[in-house]
Amino acid sequence: MTSRIAQAQELMSIHGVDALIVSPSPDLRYLSGYAALPLERLTALIVRAEDDPVLMVPELEVAAARAAGVSFEITSWAETEDPFALIATLLSDADVIGVDDRMWASRLFAIQEALPETSLTVGGSIIAELRMTKEPEEVAALTDAGAAIDRVHDRMHEWLRAGRTEREVGADIARAILDEGHDQVDFVIVASGPNGASPHHEVSDRVIEVGDPVVVDIGGTNKAGYCSDSTRNYVAGPEVDPEYAALHAVLLDAQTAQRAAARPGISAEQLDAVGRDIIEAAGFGPNFMHRTGHGIGLETHEEPYIVSGSVRMLKPGMAFSIEPGIYLPGRFGARIEDIFVCTDDGAVSLNNTSRELRFL
Ligand code: ZN
Ligand code: ZN
Ligand code: ZN
Question: Are residues 59 and 81 in contact, defined by beta-carbon separation less than 8 angstroms?
Answer without folding.
Answer: no
